[in-house]
Structures are given as C-alpha cells and as structure tokens.
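Quick one: sequence plus magnesium ion SMILES, need structure tokens.
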Amino acid sequence: MAVKSAYLARKGEKGSKGEKGGKGPKATDLKNSGFSAEEEINAYRDMLLIRRFEEKAGQLYGMGLIGGFCHLYIGQEAVVVGMQMAAQEGDQVITSYRDHGHMLACGMDPAGVMAELTGRRGGISKGKGGSMHMFSREKHFYGGHGIVGAQVPLGAGLAFANRYRGNTNVSMTYYGDGAANQGQVYETFNMASIWKLPCIFVIENNRYAMGTAATRSTAVAEELGKRGEAFGIPAEQVDGMDVRAVKDAADRATEHCRSGEGPYILEMMTYRYRGHSMSDPAKYRSKEEVQKMREEHDPIEQVKARLLKSNRASEDDLKKIDGEIRDVVTRAADFATNDPLPDASELWTDIYVNA
Ligand SMILES: Cc1ncc(C[n+]2csc(CCOP(=O)(O)OP(=O)(O)O)c2C)c(N)n1
Ligand SMILES: [Mg+2]
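Reply:
Sure thing.
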C-alpha cells in the first residue's frame, strides 16, 4: 500500500541545508481542514498549557525540586493536541517517557502530574512513579514507558481489547524515530495487520534520538511510515508542527480504524526544542537549527497568527487565555511544591496487584 504524503513542498523551500537532522517540515495541503474559530482557540489553549507546563517543569528541575529523568515535549505540542481533537471517549493513549503533553491532552489534572514530577503524595502515581510512570484509567492514558519501543506492542494490546470488546475505540500508540528501529515495532505491525487491530501508530519523528540525528542512525529516516508497506498498513506523512494537518490526518486514521479496516500509521514530522532530557550537552545540532524551527514552524505561533489575522481573536482575548493558563500552571506548581512527600510506609504498597 502506498504511503500517502500530506506534504506539499513550500515553493522554493528546500529545507535547511546542511542541517545534521535533515529537512524541516513542509507546508501541508489542507483543502478540507479549515478549523472553526472554536477549534483554533481550543488548539491554542491546549498547546499553550503543555508549553507553559513544560517550561515550569524545566524550572522546577533546575531548582532541584524534580529528581530523576524528565523529558520535555516543547515544540511537539501540535502532535498530541491534533490527535486528541479526533479522539472519541474511550480511545486509549500510550507513549514513551516524553509523556507530560500526552497526559495533559488526555485531560489529566496538571497539579497531579506536576506533583508526580516532584514526588509528592498527591501525584498521579502517589509520588512513586515520577515523570515516566504515570497512568490514568479514567482518562484512558496507559503510560509513560521508559524502555524505548516497549509501549508499541502494549498499544496493539489495547487495540486488541477494543476489537475483543466489539467497541469502536482506537488505540493511539506513540513512539519516536529512534524507537522506530526497535524490532518489536515490526512484530507488532505484523500482528496488528493480520488481526486488523484499531491501532494508530503515531511516529513522532523529531529527528533525533538522544544525541543522534535520525539521518545518521536510521535507514530512510524521513519516511518511517513506509515501513508499514511491507505489512499492508497504510501510512501518511504529516506536518506535525501544524495542528490542522495533524487533526486532518487523525480524522482519516480514526475513521479507517473505527470502520474495522485495521491499523494506520501517521508519521508526524516534528521537532523538540529542548534537549533530550535535562542533561543534554546539545552538541549534536546548531543553535541556528533550533532557532530556525522556532521562528518558521512553531505550532503555537502559527495558530496565534491565524487567529489574529482572521480577527477571530484579539490580542486581548489571547492575553486572557495566556493568563488563565499561567494561573493553572502556577497552581499546579504550588501544589507540587507544598504537598507532603509520601509516607515511608508507602514504600511497600502498589508494588504487586492484589489478585
Ligand atoms: C531499549 C532501550 N534502549 C535504549 C534506551 C536509552 N534511550 C532512552 S531515550 C532514547 C532515544 C529514543 O529516541 P526517540 O525514539 O526518537 O524518542 P524521542 O526521545 O526523540 O522522543 C534512548 C536510546 C532505552 N531507554 N531503552
Ligand atoms: Mg526522536
């Protein structure tokens, strides 16, 4: 099955030449995907919440209030927000350790997520899981996985559960360009395809796996969706910096899965602005490369510019939203820094399931 590209080359744009990680995202053909004013505003608000939350998490980490690993999602916000715009109640989300944005987009409480980062009692995992290990059955969020690629077969398992129960839910299974080189991804493709599982494989191709550019470690690094061809899984490559393009592709993918046609791959071309984790020497790419991406493709700035240009929102309207988001994040950080640490007796609880 052919890979359908949702890209249309922007006239004259050749990507940023000489970049270690390859080309930037190109403009998307968005014939039928104009957002309503409400959709634009919601997308703006949801992406901004992730951005501000992650900035605050970075600050708290710098102050020594967050221990262990912490991987920020800044730059990639349009991917999960656009995907969730196509979700229906009960659709599951599962991802890697770069998971705070996914949790917020699923509607999990920012204070609970932040308090988990600071290891407090009121954290989503009672302060015992940290950044990479949070779950919410209520919001259908299944982690938070630190083993690269391990969430992919689990995501197909969630899709299997939907199939078994005969519902119309889909499993949105996210993984990175680095994880795309893990063998278990292809074992999963095989089973998902033969069993026609309602699973959307969302590849977040942010062009780097830790400090290694995908172009150095990965064959055909800019067409990872093509890898589904051998398994008969349709794929699209999407401008993952444009929330409209993401939602547009997500609509097609969910429709395909819900109608019993089997899995679908969406390769989101995206970019992370911050380091891989909080300790990252950042020697593998230039500051100019990051700057260029921020200036030309920032997902939040794109929506903001459209809202202002179309007069769907004024500067004041957006300032009001910004203020509301700051309040939410400030409250989350206050809770996360004042809530007590777990009691020592909790060391032995939640380790095994009581069967
Ligand atoms: C099985 C396994 N191998 C190696 C690692 C170390 N590791 C952690 S993150 C990472 C890079 C993964 O990159 P990618 O899938 O592109 O995701 P991104 O960090 O860009 O979101 C590696 C190699 C690991 N956690 N698990
Ligand atoms: Mg990556």
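The CA atoms of residues 159 and 196 lie 9 Å apart. The pocket of magnesium ion (ligand 2) is lined by residues 176-178, 206, 208-209 (CB under 6 Å).
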